[in-house]
Write a structure and sequence with these properties.
Strand content: under 5%
Largest sheet: none
Oligomer: single chain
Structural class: mainly alpha
Number of strands: 0
């Protein structure tokens, strides 16, 4: 009896299974979709969680009737790839993965830039504002054939029609990015790498035809004079043409705007512009007032007026040397660097340092600085000096005599005639210095006849 009941139950299950329209592999409970009221399914009352099938209903799929996708009741045979349900309206010109461009929210593509960013040609610059049909000529038929990604593939007509400059006649490269930036919004902003001749300073031009006339963009020389011949010929200060200046402009000029300041490096080969002379490098006429040939290089030739106008001290009346560099340097006229201590008498060192204020303290005759006074200063009164020198042979109270015996100004370094080629002996011991040194103390002859000629003749 028990065996019979089991066979009857098994038979009934097979009958039910055989009658199910959903196939043998359908393992969901009927009440997940159906109710006891009717077998018909209402999408709005559907309790079935479609996400458990691996295909969640979102966007437009959420409002579809089940039979829109499940035309047969065996759900296990329903495809999940978009193209299996949706007709390829693009005629196989794009990927079959519809979700590369579309979402289930709508067929309208709202993120075309993001879509293109994943392609071979991201949209940047002016391409972001372009209409799809500008590049995709079959756009109206919703076909998107693969396009070339080189600029010239789309812009050959722009290349051919360009006139400023004429790209075809100038034989320009058809690699547009050599001159134009793909990130720009317009063609007019060129970005040509002109590194073989840097466009900087005065050469920073905006119009190519300032140098490239008649669409000639090949074979231009980099010699300055080719472009600047008119500048060379018209320059008057100085007149380049008359003076036959070098036509290599870089010998003097930089590429700064207006070609200044000039930097005439060749000038150093015959007269270096150092010190204060550097500041007049851009006013050649200050030295070349009468032309540029045979210009003297000695200081006095240019600074004669300074020499004659100087009053403290008066160079001209004092008969100062016209060799300006013996006192002055190239940096400035003052302070002067007259080496009084080593050449003449130590006034900046020793006991005389700080004992005078002006040159006239010793040189009372401003018209002759060879004349100097020792005996008019500080303690040099004649009574004291006579007393101090009463044991000195040939002593006289005279400034030149002071210098002869005291060349360094020190009291203990008196002059000894025995150190010369003419020691004082015999009658010469008591002779005044001026008797022999009538014309000063340098170059006095040691020949007897020179001093005693009159006695010889008498």
């Amino acid at each position: 009896m028990y065996k019979l009941s089991f066979l009857i139950l098994l038979f009934l299950v097979k009958i039910v299974t055989a009658q199910s329209p959903h196939g043998a592999d359908f393992n969901y409970e009927c009440q997940e979709c159906h109710t006891t009221d009717t077998w018909k399914i209402s999408s709005s009352k559907l309790n079935f969680e479609h996400a458990q099938t691996g295909f969640e209903l979102i966007g437009q799929h959420k409002v579809l009737d089940c039979q829109s996708c499940h035309s047969a009741w065996e759900f296990s045979n329903t495809p999940q790839d978009c193209y299996q349900c949706h007709t390829d309206i693009h005629n196989n010109t794009v990927s079959k993965s519809c979700d590369n461009c579309h979402s289930s929210k709508s067929w309208v593509i709202e993120n075309i830039n993001d879509v293109h960013r994943m392609s071979r040609f991201p949209l940047v610059g002016a391409h972001q504002q372009a209409d799809c049909q500008d590049c995709h000529k079959s756009f109206d038929n919703l076909q998107f054939e693969q396009l070339g990604i080189d600029c010239i593939d789309c812009h050959i007509s722009d290349y051919e029609s360009s006139t400023l400059p004429n790209h075809r006649e100038a034989n320009f490269s058809n690699d547009c990015q050599q001159c134009h930036l793909i990130t720009d919004q317009q063609w007019s902003r060129a970005n040509f790498e002109h590194s073989f001749f840097p466009l900087e300073g005065g050469h920073k031009i905006s119009n190519c035809f300032d140098c490239h006339s008649q669409n000639n963009f090949e074979g231009l020389t980099q010699d300055c004079i080719v472009c600047h011949q008119n500048d060379y010929n018209s320059t008057t200060n100085p007149n380049h043409s008359n003076l036959n200046f070098s036509k290599n402009c870089l010998d003097c000029h930089s590429t700064n705007p207006n070609w200044r300041p000039t930097d005439f490096r060749l000038h150093d080969s015959f007269y270096p512009l150092l010190g204060a002379h550097k500041t007049i490098a851009n006013d050649c006429a200050k030295c070349h007032s009468t032309g540029y040939e045979n210009t003297p290089t000695d200081c006095f030739s240019c600074h004669k007026q300074n020499y004659e106008n100087t009053a403290n001290p008066n160079h001209k009346s004092a008969g100062f040397s016209t060799d300006c560099e013996s006192c002055h340097n190239l940096n400035a006229w003052q302070p002067a660097s007259f080496d009084h201590d080593n050449q003449f008498f130590p006034i900046y060192s020793g006991k005389h340092n700080g004992k005078w204020n002006d040159c006239s303290d010793c040189h009372s005759n401003s018209s002759n600085f060879q004349i100097f006074e020792c005996v008019t200063c500080h303690e040099h009164n004649q009574t004291d000096m006579d007393d101090n020198h009463k044991e000195v042979n040939g002593y006289i109270y005279q400034s030149t005599a002071c210098l002869a015996c005291h060349p360094t100004g020190d009291e203990g370094n008196g002059f000894s005639h025995s150190t010369t080629q003419f020691p004082l002996t015999g009658a010469h011991v008591s002779v005044d210095c001026s008797t022999c040194h009538t014309n000063g103390y340098s170059g006095t002859s040691t020949e007897c006849f020179v001093c005693h000629e009159n006695k010889y003749a008498s």
